[in-house]
Amino acid sequence: MTHSFTFNDKKIPILVQPHQRSKSFRMRYDEINETLKVTTPIFYRKKTLDNFLKECHPWIIKQLVRSHDNWVIDLSKYFKVFDQDYKIELAPMKKKGLWENGNILELGGQSPDIKAYLEKWIKQKAHSYFSEKSNGYGEMIHKSFSKVSIRDSKTRWGSCSSTGTLSYSWRLAFAPEEVANYLCVHEVCHLKEMNHSPRFWKLVESLCPDYKDHKNWLRKDGKHLQKLQFK
Description:
The structure is a single chain. By secondary structure, this protein is an alpha/beta fold. The chain folds into 2 domains: 3-70, no CATH class; 117-230, Metalloproteases ("zincins"), catalytic domain (Zincin-like, 2-Layer Sandwich), CATH 3.30.2010.10. 39% of the residues lie in helices and 27% in strands. The chain has 6 helices and 13 strands. The chain has helices spanning 46-55, 57-70, 114-140, 177-189, 198-207, 211-226, and strands at 3-7, 10-18, 26-30, 35-40, 72-73, 79-81, 84-91, 97-101, 104-108, 147-151, 158-160, 165-169, 229-230. The strands form 4 sheets. The protein has a 4-stranded mixed sheet with strand order 1-2-4-3, covered by helices on one side. The mean pLDDT is 89.
């Protein structure tokens, strides 16, 4: 049986999941996969399910609006990159590209591709930021790395290869700066401890005492960064 809910002209799938221990209907929203999931008893009437889905409409709309607001950045207003405020302004007489002028990003050229230029600029900003931070933390633990790579992985925020390459997601530029710093500490510490042993976490804590708070932020709110969009 196929169900869906239409929101902003987009169909959100509703996945019905009968469970032998369930005695009632429950719904949750999976933000990562943009799917509504309903747990039901093994046996139920179609009419009962239909009524439940209808009653959930206000709740569904509330969840979708909240989720949408969390991962859409309005480029007509100021937005934060590594906790610094920036705003885009059109500069049609300038050469094509995105030019940083204080906290104003001047977008040059006629009919420019805003999103493409912005993503390129963010990646450059992230590379500079994480290179500087990685150098600093590396010196603290007397370890060096081969290079910094900026990626857009959907499964991890960062990584440290056996050859000493530190990789970071450019989306961390939109996280609180202390969270981005924690990720940097995490990957740099892997240069010394290529594991997640108690010794590794003790090393992380020595550089970032409140790392657990930032780790929890990524677990709870990082999903919004993975779905980041610009408008």
